[in-house]
Design a protein that fits this description.
mainly alpha; 2 domains; 13 helices; A middle domain of Talin 1
Length: about 350
């Protein structure tokens, strides 16, 4: 009888919603007394805005170095070093696919790899291209600039030099735009969104951190090249394919970012877990991140060479990173009463 009554109530509720034409609201999950606002201020002011500020400065330096190189007043080596510095800074902000970066599809414009050499050369040959178009996502950003600086044999030609200039200018302009949106308006939106719904700031931020750890870091940097999702290793899928000496540097910068977002600053996720009485989980996450860092440190500077010469170590490193993913995606989300907001399609 209770079951029938429940079904009638549910049907009435659904009918009532449909009859008004209103969409059902995302339910608010009860929030504990931890200061989520202060936590969001910490993330905005100690990590997100400083991260974009540094990237913006490094891309401005890359743009200046590019202009000097094209004018014949600096060396290719100087330009390559400026590219590396900016790419290192990118590792600190790629995780923040929220707000302006999400609306501008920044990750797709900055770091789709491997870059598509055919598309790059086709754009250069035609001289007509829209760098913001979706079909050019794999022909722009850091990987495309990397190809031109470290591999292209046509960098002396005017069309190639123009494409390089356009790429760097686009990256600089996009980053400046995202930073301006954060400092002018979005910061206030972010820090004041203190509820516990699927669309509130902390829930989005935590999901972005986990998504990046699982996909952008674990899968893209390690798992795909190691062949986890294919029939065998794919060394040509590594990040920094043409500047191979930097693969490990970029990955270590990425995992340092993950660790800092978990445990550094005021009112961190680690602090939140301790507040909730789960010091054990906080310790487990920290220790596992350190284990994964140790595994990364044991790899060759070139992940391409690592996959080709001893892929077993890449596979072991993947396993260590996967343990972080489980702790964050299962245990952390459960403890914080946050639901995962993205679809997991690779069976883990």
């Amino acid at each position: 009888m209770k079951k029938i009554s429940y079904l009638l109530i549910l049907a009435f509720a659904l009918f009532s919603c449909d009859s008004t034409g209103e969409e059902p609201q995302t339910p608010e999950v009860p929030v504990d007394s931890f200061d989520r606002g202060a936590m969001l201020v910490s993330y905005a002011d100690q990590f997100i805005i400083p991260g974009y500020t540094q990237l913006n400065a490094d891309l401005s330096a890359l743009k200046s170095s590019k202009d000097q190189y094209l004018a014949g007043s600096s060396s290719l080596e100087d330009l390559q070093e400026a590219w590396k510095s900016a790419y290192m800074s990118w590792q600190k902000v790629e995780v923040f696919n929220i707000g302006p970066a999400e609306s501008e599809l920044m990750t797709f414009q900055m770091n789709v790899y491997p870059t598509n050499v055919t598309d790059i050369e086709s754009n250069i040959e035609s001289g007509s291209y829209d760098l913001t178009a979706v079909n050019n996502n794999d022909a722009v950003g850091f990987p495309a600039v990397e190809y031109l600086l470290f591999e292209s044999e046509t960098l002396s030609e005017d069309a190639t030099r123009q494409y390089l200039s356009d790429l760097v200018d686009r990256m600089s302009d996009l980053t400046s735009q995202v930073l301006t949106e954060w400092t002018s308006s979005y910061r206030e939106t972010f820090v004041n969104s203190t509820g516990n719904t699927a669309s509130s700031a902390l829930n989005l931020f935590v999901n972005d951190l986990i998504f990046y750890t699982e996909k952008g870091f674990r899968a893209n940097k390690v798992g795909i090249p190691a062949g986890i999702f294919s029939g065998g290793p794919l060394p040509d899928r590594v990040e920094s394919l043409y500047a191979q000496a930097y693969s490990k540097d970029f990955s270590l910068e990425a995992i340092n970012t993950i660790q800092n977002l978990f445990s550094s600053g005021n009112n961190s996720l680690e602090d939140y877990l301790i507040y909730l009485g789960n010091q054990e989980l906080a310790t487990d996450i920290t220790e596992q991140i350190n284990d994964a860092k140790s595994a990364l440190n044991g790899l060759d500077n070139s992940f391409y060479d690592q996959v080709v010469n001893d892929n077993t170590q890449m596979l072991r490193t993947y396993d260590e990173i996967q343990k972080i993913v489980v702790l964050l995606k299962v245990d952390l989300l459960q403890e914080l009463n946050i639901a995962v907001d993205y679809v997991d399609a690779d069976g883990d």
